[in-house]
Design brief:
By secondary structure, the protein is of the alpha/beta class. It is built from eleven helices and eight strands. The chain starts with 18 loop residues before the first strand and ends in an 11-residue tail after the last helix. This is Acetoin utilization protein AcuC.
Amino acid sequence: MHSIAGGSPSAIRRIEYPTAVAWSESVLSYNFGDQHPMSPARLDLTARLCEALGLFSLPTVTLVEPHVATDDELATVHTREYIAAVHRVSENPDRPEPTQGLGTEDDPAFAGMHEASARLVGGSLVAAEAILDGSAVHAVNFAGGMHHAAADRGSGFCIYNDAAAAIQRLLDRGVGRVVYIDTDAHHGDGTERIFWDEPRVMTISLHESGLTLFPGTGFPTETGGADAEGTAVNVALPAGTRDAGWLRAFHAVVPQLVEAFRPEVIVSQHGCDAHHLDPLTNLQVTVDAQREVALSVSALARRFCEGRWIATGGGGYEVVQVVPRAWAHLVGIAAGHPVNLQTPTPQSWRDYVRDEYGKDAPALMGEGADLWWRSWEIGFNPNDPVDRAVMATRREVFPLHGLDPWFD
């Protein structure tokens, strides 16, 4: 029998860092069609909720315009051949190139695909530049987080990998070490593979097991290339994992490895499709838990990186109830003004949702969830499938960083 002692929600320290938010309505052109889960309404509703909450007008926040990334910028993480293929499909969507993931069911071809996809990359690049030039300490591109895009192909609703491009920009400009933290329900396979052999980047992905969810990868034994062993970290959670298990897994793996790796910047992906209402996944977490993880990532950046943090969006397909709240919380946390979970959603925003989308918006910014979790320090329960998943990761990776999988 284990102790019932456990963790609780992070204490909020209101530290106001200059924060760049990459936003323009031009990003809404990333649109695979009306029947596709990756609806641009996710971004529209998020931005409107941020505006209605006053987050975009905070003195700490500067809105920056995402540009269309150049081919040279894209080529820092993608092959020239693949970029050329995206151009061709963008100009002639009736001629798909499915061998490169273009014109498939997941990634339907559309006119202007290249420009729309490259603009998402531009949003994360301007976020990286803001960190590099010191105009911001925190930066958010909630339209980004396209973590399935590989160097040479599109996949899983993702054409170009904006987070990878931002990380590479940081490295190219002299940043020595970057930790990438991915809490999307899907394995961050594209970002991981781009940096598979890069010892300066640690990718940590907390996701539903590939046994039950696309892309079928992200197992604990996937730990990085021969010259970067231990820099790919995967926590493959069982379907049905709820807030307590999700938070326990995060806190049993992520802070310890961040401390061991000592990054100079944290880049995070906050896909919110781990939510219990998401139609595409099987995890069962709440907006409240997703906010808690964003607070924890912010605290890690404050502790180890002098605050330097770039946050992106990602997946999330419950367009009204989940995505806008999760990412508005992310913006508020980055700006040093976390939105209380009991805050009512603004009436003007709820009216817009009803008028524009014919749906009822949530009344509050939170769900009233109990965010207590059992701390790893009280012991490993071999009968708990979440604990078994966590221990599998710790056994593979912790010794490579001088950590004990049982006690650290």
